[in-house]
Amino acid sequence: MTNTVRAEVITIGDEILFGQITDTNTAWIGTELTNIGVRVVRKTSVGDQQDAILQSLQEAHQRADIIIITGGLGPTKDDITKKTLCTYFGVGMVRNEIALALVTGFFEKRGREMTDLNRGQADLPANATYMQNDWGTAPGMWFEHEGRVYVSLPGVPFEMKHLMSNRILPKLTEHFKTPIIKHKMIRTVGIGESFLAERIEAWEDALPDHIKLAYLPSFGGVKLRLTATGDDNALLDQELAEQVAKVMPLIEKNVYGFDSDEIENVVGKLLVEKNLTLSVAESCTGGYVSAQITKVPGSSAYFWGSVVSYSNSVKISQLGVQPETLDQFGAVSEETIRQMAEGVRKTLGTNVGIATSGIAGPGGGTPEKPVGTIWIACATDQRTVTRLLKLGQYRDQNIQLTTMYVLNMLREELINQ
């Protein structure tokens, strides 16, 4: 098997550490490197301090074959990446005439005056191979040093992605003979990590050495990621498919999708396949269920609308919940959630209605119905199913978990029909 090629990604910028911007670059770079068979071993964020950057570079040199650096390439004094790279490599700065011509053309095309700071964008460390940035003035740079490849890229995401896709990734695949790394994701819902691990323990123990399993807990379930490494793309696909087929009988009831599937996409496809329409009645989730459903392009083909019935008066007037039901059992009850799901289905004229009602918190709980007590329901022309959820104390978590569980209830009912 081909030797593993390791990479480290270093993001530079105080604004990342201060939380002023979200670092999306490292996730994207990690995915793209994995796709060409490079294993990312670490991601590091450092501020705009030369000592910290130098230390990160020295440490990365010990761990990785490829060091990808993003950020700090602008024209202002706080952008110190180029000067720091000169110090690290022990070289001076030289003006690159190709880069200067491109920077000059960039400003001329836009009718803007170019300053000395802008011209400085064409000054590169003497040992750099210039990698042309077609979408901006910050240069891309490639270095080869003591058996390692260093790549410096602008921090602006669309500039970085263009450079990486069109210049860096092709050059990396030429420079290194990398193995193939393939991932297969199994998405589960309604089962905890420890219960899942216990259920599939024998299967996991029997996995071949070149296929690794990772548990990725998420709201309402766990993602199982299989990672296979080898030299034969078709063989790896076949082996991953075989492993999925072996484990599915153990967990099939909890699997809602694979790879990039999200539960709202899965239920949308089922509704389209069965030519069914959906409406939603929400209380404690406050419209979050509907928002997730309408995230899916084309959801207007099956989603007709919702009623956010936060008050009892709206439950009565818009959903047909009986006042005596609310008086006797309360808004958070099986009797009420049943009438909410059936009522929204009738009011909006859809094939299916789902509903949520509960105490999301942090206040409003009682000894009989503490915070996290939530009822969900799904009504079709065949039957209405209900379920009591006993969640935690945190409002946002409760809203997201309830949404996941009611959509999974919908999925199960659609499959059973």
Task: Summarize this structure briefly.
The chain is of the alpha/beta class. The chain has helices spanning 14-17, 25-35, 50-63, 81-89, 97-109, 116-119, 157-175, 193-199, 201-205, 233-251, 263-273, 288-294, 312-319, 323-329, 334-348, 395-416; strands at residues 5-12, 38-46, 66-70, 93-95, 123-125, 129-131, 140-145, 148-153, 180-188, 211-218, 221-230, 255-258, 278-282, 303-308, 352-358, 373-379, 384-390.
Describe the fold and architecture.
With 417 residues, this protein is an alpha/beta fold. It has 3 domains: 5-175, 3-Layer(aba) Sandwich (Molybdenum Cofactor Biosythetic Enzyme, Chain A); 180-258, 2-Layer Sandwich (Alpha-Beta Plaits), CATH 3.30.70; 263-416, Maf protein. The protein is 42% helix and 25% strand. The protein contains 16 helices and 17 strands. The chain has helices spanning 14-17, 25-35, 50-63, 81-89, 97-109, 116-119, 157-175, 193-199, 201-205, 233-251, 263-273, 288-294, 312-319, 323-329, 334-348, 395-416, and strands at residues 5-12, 38-46, 66-70, 93-95, 123-125, 129-131, 140-145, 148-153, 180-188, 211-218, 221-230, 255-258, 278-282, 303-308, 352-358, 373-379, 384-390. The longest helix has 22 residues, at 395-416.
Largest sheet: 6 strands, mixed
Mean pLDDT: 94
Strands of the widest sheet, in order across it, are 2-1-3-8-7-6
CATH homologous group name of the largest domain: MoaB/Mog-like domain
User: What is the count of β-strands?
Assistant: 17
Radius of gyration: 28 Å
What percent of residues are in strands?
Answer: 25-35%
Family: Belongs to the CinA family.
Protein name: CinA-like protein
